[in-house]
Specification:
- The complex is a heterodimer of chains A (225) and B (302).
- With 225 residues, chain A is of the alpha+beta class.
- In chain A, 29% of the residues lie in helices and 36% in strands.
- Chain A is globular and about 50 Å long.
- The two termini of chain A are 27 Å apart.
- Chain B is an all-alpha fold and 302 residues long.
- Chain B has one domain.
- The chains are: A alpha+beta (225), B mainly alpha (302).
- β1 of chain A pairs antiparallel with β1 of chain B, so a sheet runs across the interface.
Chain lengths: 225, 302
């Protein structure tokens, strides 16, 4: 059986309406993408797919995604005024609607975010009840829920790299809950998406970043904090 | 070991054997299961109840117009109407349930209890009960714990999601939680609390989820008001020791069975019922985005 429900799943969560999959889940996808980028973007191109393509405006998912990109949480009453607040924050955004993307989950959003020189692409799915899956980060398969502490490492695809990284994480007393590995080409670039029950120390992250075969380390602490 | 009751019968036996009140094993469950202390649980229940009361207030005071225009300050009109059908308390009950749910439809802050689509029912009923009977917050919080215990069992035996069990699973479960909480708060015994849950489920059984344009507005908002009324009628019946005849566990089984055999078009898909009426369809055309890029079959969004 899946994890047992809390009484605060019955009396809660406290959230902004109208629907957990169209507002809370959407805010959380944007918050995860914001952490991948490392700050509030200057520009965002937001594509709503399939079911979301038709319904995003009626449900206010457009305001929810912009609010998440402004780092607001799922229960923030400012979500309703996200467009005005985005203007003040200097965040430019455009929306696109794409139907019939058969391989995508019915409620999928793709985010192209730019902040200065930094660009990221994140694809997220809103699964219901505010639960999300970040399916891709910069073209790599990620499949993370962003509900715990997440580490996304892009590295040269070398022998023993997974064992090496797992060892470093275990030395920091963090327990790995899930890990997905994907790569582009043999001996080319690999991407590790790791979810852990607890967070990592800054020194551990710095050490990972210092390794010459590691290209990029993105650390996403609990996105609801 | 944490206790998660799979049946109302077990919950009752446990309470009778240990000589504890209905809310106590629910509190113990949360403490054990989630590793929290009692203070944490009470504080967060208080926060949730504060959000519920704020939602009622917001819905009655601020402008509540949804983007589709289908929701347009209905709660205020009910609250201010000089013509009352029954007594003013009934009018207030209905207005408050509408108010909290309108806040949900208009992107305000609510407590999903158990879901966002049913977020007006506990606020409307608990606020009104507290006012009429002068109850302390603590008593209402105990009632909310009883309501959470009720929902935990329904979640296991049936469902709380409209996409799985139709509207009966959402507003039906919320009404059952509210009804049980009302009877508990007014000093009803375990049999009376559970009988209220049984009668409420009997009244809500079969309700389909058929939202116009797929939005959580019509008929969701008015159904929050009717569910609040049914929670109260069931509580009145149960507190008078009038049996619902079918025991509560069997009523929950029926809820699950009806939900399972319900066609997909009645499960939040906006493909049946009110969503498919002529007016429902024309609103849908107006509200939904029509300018959508359609991909070729081989280009699946990759």
């Amino acid at each position: 059986m899946a994890e047992r429900s809390s009484i605060f799943d019955m009396i809660g969560p406290v959230m902004i309406g109208p629907s957990s999959s169209h507002t809370a889940g959407v805010v959380r996808i944007a918050r995860a993408a914001l952490k991948v980028l490392g700050g509030i973007p200057d520009e965002a191109i937001i594509t709503f797919y399939n079911s979301f393509a038709r319904t995003y405006e009626g449900h206010g998912s457009d305001k929810a995604i912009v609010a998440g990109l402004l780092n607001y949480k799922t229960d923030d009453i400012r979500i309703k005024k996200a467009f005005e607040l985005a203007e003040e924050a200097g965040l430019k955004y455009t929306f696109k609607s794409v139907g019939s993307a058969g391989t995508y989950h019915p409620n999928t959003i793709k985010l192209h975010l730019t902040k200065g020189e930094n660009k990221v692409e994140v694809i997220g799915e809103s699964l219901g009840g505010g639960v999300i899956n970040i399916s891709k980060v910069n073209g790599f398969t990620a499949n993370i829920t962003a509900a715990s502490h997440t580490l996304i490492i892009t590295a040269k695809d070398t022998k023993g790299s997974i064992a090496f990284i797992s060892n470093i994480i275990s030395n920091d007393a963090a327990n790995i809950a899930t890990m997905s590995v994907s790569r582009k080409g043999k001996n080319d670039i690999a991407c590790l998406a790791i979810e852990m029950d607890t967070g990592l120390k800054t020194i551990t992250l710095e050490y990972l970043k210092s390794l010459d075969w590691v290209m990029d380390v993105i650390y996403i602490p609990d996105i609801d904090m | 070991m944490s206790i998660l009751f799979s049946e109302f019968k077990e919950w009752k036996e446990y309470c009778e054997e240990k000589g504890v009140k209905l809310f106590e094993p629910v509190l113990e469950y949360e403490k054990d299961q989630k590793g929290k202390d009692a203070d944490f649980v009470w504080e967060n229940l208080q926060k949730a109840y504060d959000v519920m009361r704020d939602a009622v207030k917001t819905g009655l005071e601020e402008d509540m117009q949804s983007r589709s225009g289908m929701i347009n300050n209905g709660a205020k009109k009910v609250y201010q109407n000089p013509l009352t059908v029954l007594d003013p308390n009934f009018q207030k009950l209905i207005a408050r349930a509408l108010a909290a749910k309108e806040v949900n439809s208009c992107m305000g802050r609510v407590v999903a209890a158990p879901t966002a689509g049913a977020s007006g029912i506990l606020p409307g009923t608990m606020f009104t009960l507290q006012e009429i009977h002068g109850l302390e917050d603590r008593k209402i919080l105990e009632g909310l714990l009883v309501g959470a215990g009720i929902a935990l069992i329904i979640e296991q035996k049936a469902s709380l999601a409209g996409a799985v069990g139709g509207c009966q699973a959402e507003t039906g479960s919320a009404a059952a939680m509210a009804s049980g909480a009302i009877v508990y708060c007014l000093g009803g015994d375990i049999d009376q609390v559970f009988n209220a849950v049984a009668i409420t489920i009997q009244c809500m059984l079969g309700l389909v989820c058929d939202p116009v344009a797929g939005l959580v507005e019509v008929p969701c908002v008015v159904r929050n008001a009717s569910a609040a009324a049914i929670a109260n009628s069931s509580a009145q019946i149960a507190l008078s020791n009038v049996s619902g005849v079918i025991p509560v566990d069997e009523c929950v089984d029926a809820l699950g069975e009806v939900g399972q055999s319900m066609e997909t078009k009645y499960k939040e898909t906006a493909m049946g019922g009110l969503a498919m009426t002529l007016t429902g369809q024309s609103i849908s055309k107006k509200v939904l985005i029509q300018d959508i890029e359609m991909l070729e079959d081989e280009d699946n969004g990759e």
